Amino acid sequence: WQTKTVKDWTPQDIVQWVNSEARSLNVCCTEMAGEKFALYDGAQLLSFTSTAFSDIDSRYGPVLYQKLHEIASSRYHQLNGGRCIKYGSEESLDEKVHNTIMTNLDSIRDESNYGQPPMSPGLSGKTMDTSEIATVPSLSPQPPPKKKGPGRPKGSKRKKKPEKLGRLWEFLRDLLKNREYCPSLIVWDNYEEGMFRFVHSDKVAKLWGTKKDNPDMNYEKLSRAMRYYYKSKVLLPVYGRRLVYKFGPTATGWKVDNPNFKD
């Protein structure tokens, strides 16, 4: 894939590219939806919008969209007499672009939207020619949607705004404050230290999966998502204790008057 133009990439090339990007960003290859992007060829991916990439992979789609068009633009200039730069070298991605991508990645990790299922892109296989590729700025913001005229067609239904689902650590905090789940599913292990323990870890994971509309959620995925909060010190591990975690110094709203509802 490194020697081809993007529009000539095969699904196998796309898998190799996604794995390469995962390694360069210090992300486990299995966390990027390489197999989902490999349902398309390079020409089809070039025709997709940033929103379509987000539908395929809500966590890393925007990052991969930017990277793909960086490569496409670089290859276009090479074919038109520009200085040949092999993708992957330091010169192929300037510092500003790299910093922006890493900022986006940190934001994705901190939000921890792990496990949210991708939507179907529903796009045709229309390709983008090289003149279109050359004019695609990798970091330019998407234009705002055009405002519709007053009123709406007769018989049309107003779309309901999606409900904000909240963050994983807040979900766990709220379970500990609800006697329906605490202490039967999750329990304060050492309230003074902000330490809690999963009593039925898989049931808690299923509750989170139901909230996120992800029936495949399990404790392994849940615990991996919890680790994203270590850096921001919202959650912290308790080493040597299985199924035990604690709220960090930046967590808020977890203190209660009646821990484990003993009274």
What descriptive keywords fit this protein?
263 residues; alpha+beta; Arc Repressor Mutant, subunit A; 2 domains; four-stranded antiparallel sheet; 10 helices; DNA-binding transcription factor activity, RNA polymerase II-specific; DNA-binding; ETS_fam; sequence-specific DNA binding
Please tell me about this protein's structure.
With 263 residues, the chain is of the alpha+beta class. The chain has two domains: 6-134, no CATH class; 168-261, Winged helix-like DNA-binding domain superfamily/Winged helix DNA-binding domain (Arc Repressor Mutant, subunit A). 38% of the residues lie in helices and 6% in strands. It contains ten helices and four strands, in the order H-H-H-H-H-H-H-H-E-E-H-H-E-E. The protein has helices at 11-24, 34-37, 42-47, 50-56, 61-79, 95-111, 130-134, 168-176, 201-211, 219-226; strands at 186-190, 195-198, 235-237, 244-247. Strands 1-2-4-3 form a four-stranded antiparallel sheet, with helices on one face. Strand 3 (235-237) and strand 4 form a beta hairpin. Helix 4 crosses helix 5 (61-79). The longest helix has 19 residues, at 61-79. The protein is elongated and about 70 Å long. It starts with 10 loop residues before the first helix and ends in a 16-residue tail after the last strand. Mean pLDDT is 76; it is low at 82-98 and 108-140. Keywords: DNA-binding, Nucleus. Residues 145-162 have a biased composition (Basic residues). Residues 107-162 are annotated as: Disordered. It comes from Panstrongylus megistus.
